[in-house]
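ok so for the tutorial part 2 we go from a plain amino acid sequence to predicted structure tokens. step 1 is just haveing the sequence, like this:
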Amino acid sequence: MYEIEATLFDLNGEVRKVSLAIGQRQSLSFDNFLEQVFGYQGAGAVKLASLPAGGTNHQLLVSAEVYTDSLSGRYKTIVQPGGDLDAISSNRGAFSPGISVDATSRTNIGCYNDGFQALSPQTVLVDLFTGFGTLLKTYTLNLPEKGWSQIGISDTVSGGYIQWRPQSQSSCYCYAVVVDNNSNDGTFIPALSYIP
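step 2 — the prediction. this is what the tokens look like for a chain of 196 residues:
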């Protein structure tokens, strides 16, 4: 047996931390992780880590989805788990392709401020470009220390892309979710690092 430390963050920072016991070759499954583990309703970011920290014998795999229930059924977005390779900072920017906001789709963008390199608030400038490389608008995400934020893109674009520009060395994880307006199904697009 070993422990998995689960930490919930919202717009103001850390909400709660709990430990989950798991055995070798065992799996855990939850219908509503935020509610069942944290007693929480709403949106946020969750960080999972095996204990003791830095150990290599207690590794874990995560599969997750975000959903919304409506009168027409449950609408899901599969979430790709983060890792050290997709953390971005002022010296490691990133891009998210395939951004659309039009009559058929909408896009939300968000980041979680991990603060691994520098524990401090983080500002992320988010440049929205057309598919031809024309800058449409720069959005700003202000992230508290160990906090999360998400906003909607309000400018019309089809097949555009986002350039993520964190303003400090505090590491963060960023993403876009493009949602089909008819089906409400979402496509999760993580920030993909680009190192020339």
